[in-house]
């Protein structure tokens, strides 16, 4: 099957806009890009780009595609099957927002990834962590004072709780066995878990090093949910590949991250969105969560700006699933606010993200030989990065050369 897109302007990160181009897609691959007429078969499907703008599909480096707010009350009352069916609308909202690939930081299992690959439902391509590792009493330890354990668990989805060197070693192996592409670790307290403060580190340095070493043996990256400054330091010293959130990062730690090549995925959007919109009235822990957010929102963007100044590589991620899906590209404006150029912000969610998930030979830019995961937008985001946050401006989305939104 051949598809020809004509009269289109191409935006690639770090490059000048290429105007009035034609692109030929054969099956799922970009076969040719030209400023002149491209020879095609008689039955080629022709799409008039109408002088709009073509970009690579975005890669959200921090999502939870099955999640719907992580409300414990819903875990308790809903049948397990609802947990999986939630992925159907969430995935559609994500793709329609212009995100064609995601890095799921906890919730999607191997079966969900396989279902996407087999075309059983429309969804972004997935790099998965299965379930995060958490310590007893730490962030996402959902064992409640009532004695009920609200952590979702089923065959093929191991329990994440572990303590001590021997247990974290075994749990890392269990998560790998379950099909994880990378290992996710809760290395500090968080907002959504009661009796857990974002200020404090979790897991000790020996535990963290054990996780990182075991993952590295198998070629797996390790990512840390971490707000705490000491927690960030511990993870950097342990050899982690990325810090997610990084709320209380400081200048000295930023310099060390830059030297080590440790990635930062700040997810600025999630805290601001939750603080503005709050939690459901029936959430019994809403006031505690809001109090934590007040502290985080106050300093998060300022500290991420410092990290950017010190040369830390920052990637696009949203924590969607904690907040509703489909608002993903709003995060790009936050990245521009901390000092990135629009081109850098776009790169953080395309070519740089593709490098991090080891997919840059396939996706992340509009080039011949790469997979046709593409979006067409009605405005030039280099002139107005906020235009990408308006889903109405995302006119067309291609995944594997197939139009999935038009």
From TrEMBL:
Protein name from the UniProt record: Imidazolonepropionase
Broad EC category: hydrolase
Single GO MF descriptor: imidazolonepropionase activity
Keyword Hydrolase: yes
EC number: 3.5.2.7
Superkingdom field: Archaea
Pfam family, one: Amidohydro_1
Alphabetic keyword roster: Hydrolase
Record domain Amidohydrolase-related: where: 53-403
């Amino acid at each position: 099957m051949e598809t020809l897109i004509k009269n289109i302007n191409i935006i690639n990160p770090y490059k000048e806009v290429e105007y009035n181009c034609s692109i030929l897609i054969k099956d799922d691959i970009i076969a040719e890009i030209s400023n002149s007429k491209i020879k095609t078969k008689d039955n080629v499907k022709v799409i008039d780009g109408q002088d709009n703008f073509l970009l690579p599909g975005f890669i959200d480096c921090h999502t939870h595609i099955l999640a719907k707010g992580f409300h414990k009350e819903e875990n308790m009352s809903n049948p397990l099957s609802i947990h999986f069916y939630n992925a159907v609308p969430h995935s559609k909202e994500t793709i329609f927002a212009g995100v064609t690939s995601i890095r799921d930081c906890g919730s999607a299992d191997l079966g969900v990834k396989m279902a996407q690959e087999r075309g059983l439902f429309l969804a972004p391509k997935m790099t998965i962590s299965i379930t995060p590792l958490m310590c007893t009493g730490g962030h996402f330890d959902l064992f409640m004072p009532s004695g009920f354990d609200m952590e979702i668990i089923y065959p093929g989805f191991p329990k994440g709780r572990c303590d001590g060197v021997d247990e974290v070693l075994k749990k890392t192996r269990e998560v790998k066995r379950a099909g994880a592409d990378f290992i996710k670790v809760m290395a500090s307290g968080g907002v959504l878990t009661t009796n857990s403060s974002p200020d404090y580190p979790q897991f000790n340095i020996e535990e963290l090093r054990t996780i990182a070493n075991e993952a590295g043996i198998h070629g797996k990256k390790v990512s840390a949910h971490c707000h705490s400054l000491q927690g960030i330091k511990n993870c950097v010293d342990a050899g982690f590949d990325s810090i997610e959130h990084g709320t209380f990062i400081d200048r000295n730690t930023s310099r060390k991250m830059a030297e080590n090549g440790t990635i930062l995925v700040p997810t600025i959007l999630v805290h601001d969105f939750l603080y503005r919109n709050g939690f459901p009235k029936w959430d019994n822990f809403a006031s505690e969560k809001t109090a934590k957010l007040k502290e985080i929102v106050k300093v998060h963007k300022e500290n991420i700006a410092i990290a950017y100044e010190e040369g830390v590589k920052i990637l696009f991620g949203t924590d969607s699933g904690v907040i509703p899906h489909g608002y993903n590209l709003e995060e790009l404006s936050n990245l521009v606010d901390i000092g990135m150029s629009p081109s850098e912000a776009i790169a953080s969610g395309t070519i740089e993200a593709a490098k991090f998930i080891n997919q840059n030979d396939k996706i992340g830019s509009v080039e011949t030989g790469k997979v046709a995961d593409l979006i067409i937008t009605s405005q030039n985001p280099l002139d107005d990065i906020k235009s990408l946050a308006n889903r109405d401006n995302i006119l067309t989305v291609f995944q594997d050369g197939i139009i999935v939104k038009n």
